[in-house]
Amino acid sequence: MINVLVADDELPAVEELAFLLGRDERIGSIHRASSGAEALRTLETESVDAVFLDIHMPALSGLDIARAISRSSHPPAVVFVTADEECALEAFDLAAIDYLLKPLRAERLSRSVDRISDLIKEGTPAPEMITVDLGSTTRMIRRDDVTYVQAQGDYARLHTAEASYLIRVPLSDLEQKWAEAGFIRIHRSYLIALNHVQHLKLAATGPSVAVAGAELPISRRHLPSVRDKLQTTRIRPQG
């Protein structure tokens, strides 16, 4: 069971998050704090695997708490919960494993619990983060959230379940750098994450693969290697 601490200076926000977490059977004890000082006191007296921190709290902010606990020998996993996207870069500099935007969605929160569960398993590596720009806002996204990548000239568009992000990196560079993370080239314009593949389709119009709901073409040149990889992961072609 995962024991958590929820810290927010707004009591309704604390109770909402505690309620949503309580519906997850993987969650054990749920401690509550309505200030940064109370959160630190709880962390000194209770065994906590993960903390869900609001960023903007009076006196001690969520960022202040994360800095304080990062100095401990076995710090809990940190998830920031906020309505403010502006602090994402600083949050991930503090090794946060996730950054949830209010209003919260149950399915998005469940993915955070997935990440906490993975992280506390012995030997699980920290996720690779990618810096992306959205207008004047800089965000950090996890590489394992990327379902596929689309070439756009000298740029690449990273597709996730929630949005897409343009980065100034050629697709060929990502193909080499991300190969060990389970990304394979299927077409001159596409790189896919194997763990997000739903099925391979062989049709008269040409082979394709479904990735997170998107139907993407496979070039004839790449088809043999794609089939080999997918057979290894037990994804069989459809007629």
Automatic annotation (TrEMBL):
Modified residues annotated as 4-aspartylphosphate in this record: 54
Signal sequence region: none
Keywords for the protein's UniProt record, in alphabetical order: DNA-binding, Phosphoprotein
InterPro entries with a match to the protein in the record: CheY-like_superfamily, LytR-like, LytTR_DNA-bd_dom, Sig_transdc_resp-reg_receiver
Span of domain Response regulatory: 3-117
A Pfam family assignment: Response_reg
DNA-binding recorded as keyword: yes
GO-annotated molecular function: DNA binding
Superkingdom to which the source organism belongs: Bacteria
Domain named HTH LytTR-type: residues: 130-232
Name of the molecule in the record: DNA-binding LytR/AlgR family response regulator
Gene source species: Arthrobacter bambusae
